[in-house]
Amino acid sequence: MLELKGISTFYGNIQALHDISLKVEEGEIITLIGANGAGKSTTLMSISGIVPPRTGEILFKGKPIHELSPNKIVGLGLCQVPEGRHIFPDLTVAENLDMGAFLRKDKKQIEGDLEYIYDLFPILQKRRNQPGGNLSGGEQQMLAISRALMARPQLLLLDEPSMGLAPLVTRQIFDIIRK
Ligand SMILES: Nc1ncnc2c1ncn2[C@@H]1O[C@H](COP(=O)(O)OP(=O)(O)OP(=O)(O)O)[C@@H](O)[C@H]1O
Ligand SMILES: [Mg+2]
Question: N or C, which end of the chain is more exposed by having fewer CB within 10 Å?
Answer without folding.
Answer: C
